[in-house]
Amino acid sequence: MDKIYVVATMDVEPATSTTHPSATGPDNWEDGEKFVRGYVARTGEFGLPVTFFIHPEVTVVQGDLFIELGKNGHCVDCLHLHAWKFRDGKYKAHFGGLSENDIRAALSESISMWQSGMGRRPLYFRPGTFSANDFMYQVLVDLGFRGGSCSLPGRIWPRMNAIWTGAEPDPHRAHPIFRQLIGDLEFANMPVSVDFSSRTATIGSNFQKIDPNSPEAAKGNTASNHWDLRPDWQDADYSRIADNIIDQLIDRAPSIPTINFITHNDNDHTNLDDRVCANLIKSMEAIMKSCEARNITPVGTTLDKICDMVLAEPPNVVPFIHA
Ligand SMILES: [Zn+2]
User: Fold this and answer.
1) Out of 76, 141, 254, 311, which residue is the most buried by the measure of CB atoms under 10 Å away?
2) Structural domains of the chain ordered from first start
C-alpha cells in the first residue's frame, strides 16, 4: 500500500440555544462559525480539506459560510440529521428508530430546508449518532443521494438505535436491505475508521471511559465503541489507535484505502489550549507519523471524491451460497 486517503469530517449542529441544552452543538451561532473556521485552519495545516455534514437549520443561518467553504475545496454537499431535534420536534425518535415512511418524510423535509439555505440539493448524508436501520439506504437513493458516511463499524448503542456490529469497514456500495453488508446500490458509504483491536465504553456521548460493569452502565445509556481518531475522547492514545488502524488497513488491503475521522462544531479549534483542539492536532500527527513509518503517502481528500471512486468500480456483491 503506497497511499491512504485521509478524510477529515465535521458534523455541523445548530446552536443549542435553538435546539436543546443537552444536544451537541455550539452554544450560539457566532461560536459555531468560529469553531468551523478553526477546524478548517487546523486540518489545513496537515493538508486535509474538510467534509461538512450540515444540519438543515444551520444552512438557513450560515448558508453563505458553507457556500464560501465549498468554493475553497471543502465538501459541503452533505446533510446531517438528528430526527428528534429537527424543526418542531415532531419525530420523537432517533433516526434509526423511524419507520420507512417517517425516514422518507423526515429526509424530504430536511432536503427542502437544506436546499432553501444552500441553493442546491444535498448529495451525501450522515445520520446523527450513526443511528440507522435497514430502510435508510434505499430511501436515500430514492431521494437522490449518491453517498454518505453513515456507519461507525462496531458501535453498540441501543438507546440511540445505533448498532453497527459486523459492518463493512472500508468504502463500499451500500446494500438495499441489509445495512452492514456490501451491496449494489448507486450509493457509496464511507465508514468512520476504527481500531478493531479493542473497545471502550462511555456514558452517552461524553467520551469519558467507564467500567461497563459499573452502576452507571446498568442504567442503559452505555455506548460501546471501538476506538477511532475523533479528537473528542478524554483519554485516547492516538498513536496506538492510528498505528492499529493503518496496520489493519494494510491487512485488509481495500481498493480505496481510507481513514475517515469525525468531530462536531462544539469545540474551539482556534484555541490550541482547548482539550479537543489539542487532541485534533495529536490525532493528525499520529496519522501522518504512522503513514511515514510505513512508507505510505497520506492524501487529504473529501467524501465526494471517495464516492466517485467507489461508484466507478463495478458492484462487488458476494454471490448467494445456500449453506
Ligand atoms: Zn450530530
Assistant:
1) 76
2) 3-312 (3.20.20.370)
